[in-house]
């Protein structure tokens, strides 16, 4: 006769689930309010979303490092806490853009905010576990919400972008499921720490190595789609182009933070076990991604597509740091994205300083370079801020992303990959060209004719977000070391 299993609430350690439950509860509250009264002003939903995010941020800060909960599927370590804080922080920057008057009609739907909170919960589940099933649930929860958020922009290319993203996401989910199934078949477990223990005891078996190769390739392809790595990057420019500019900026940062955390856990496990081909596949993908994306960015006629290829190149740059499998390399990943987050969100938000219903400057693109011609004469402060973002993304010292690039290259040198650091430096030099091209248009070219008919948006929410991104970009010049120390401490405490 089976004996009943007694489970106490204390042993479940439900506090580890609190951050995700807060965002899920927030989304449900918004839907319930709309159910009873669907004529409320959208500012209420913005405030509710921001409030939930603040509570969520506090809940994450209150977590204890290196503890497990809910039948040991939840893992709260330094990497989990840092990444959750970054996801929530970027989301708090993004949401107030909804207060911008008549800028983004999708913000008028309460469902937008509910889906947004569900998406954040999905990202948090991804980074706060080492259980492959829960990682999959987190990926799909976040992805399904994000597909819908893109489509809500309600333009023909937005629907196209959502369908492309859905197709690529479904393909990635299939590869992840197959890779996870192989891992389970090999080890009888779906929890990475147990998988590592089983594989470590059988690592010298020839047949096992072939199976490990298969599982690692399947999982690597799945995350190559999510991180838009070569040759699985082709969806990204079209999806970014179809989404609203701020949402494209958000997509270029937050989903990738979550995907990088899962990648660090999975592929770091393989590298720790001595599976060197995983390290070299990652390095080769990183070099191809950063180089080819930079070359494609050089020939773009649209600033938004240029920034999309730029984001792909940055992902390749950071991917290389993951291959080092050192505390310094993992610290560099989080530092890079912490600095890149503000700068890239600010750059995408700047694309909306001017508004026009028809494509006045180009029949194909919404944000051609010509749109920004002579901006220094029309909106001097806007031109200076956009130039600051471009110089930072280019890695020009001493602006913020420069420090991220320096730390990644330093990690490469210290890990013995001097040649890789040289390739990174050369790619940064190539990237400077297309970033400075926009600066040339803004400062050295004359404004387009009949420019007075263009509406320039100076709404307070948009300018406040851009101002915050600017302050963060400038502050990083002086205060990057405390951030490095905090990240290093949290990551080393978790054993990464």
Commentary on this structure:
The chain has one domain. It contains 20 helices and four strands. The longest helix has 34 residues. The strands form two sheets. The chain has a two-stranded antiparallel ribbon. The chain is mainly alpha-helical. 52% of the residues are buried.
Chain-wise SSE layout:
Blueprint (H helix, E strand, L loop, with lengths): L8 H4 L5 H19 L5 H20 L5 E3 L4 E3 L1 H17 L15 H18 L4 H20 L4 H32 L4 H10 L4 H21 L8 H8 L2 H7 L2 H19 L3 H23 L4 H22 L2 H24 L3 E2 L19 H4 L1 H14 L6 H15 L3 H27 L10 E2 L3 H34 L3
Antiparallel strand pairs: 1-2, 3-4
Q: Describe the biggest sheet?
A: 2 strands, antiparallel
Helix content: over 70%
| Mean pLDDT across every amino acid position | 82
Q: Helix and strand succession?
A: HHHEEHHHHHHHHHHHHEHHHHEH
Shape: globular
The portion of residues forming beta strands comes to under 5%
**Unreliable parts:** none
What assembly state would you assign to the polypeptide chains in this entry?
single chain
Cα Rg: 22 Å
- In total, the number of strands is 4
Distance between the termini: 44 Å
Compute the number of helices. Answer: 20
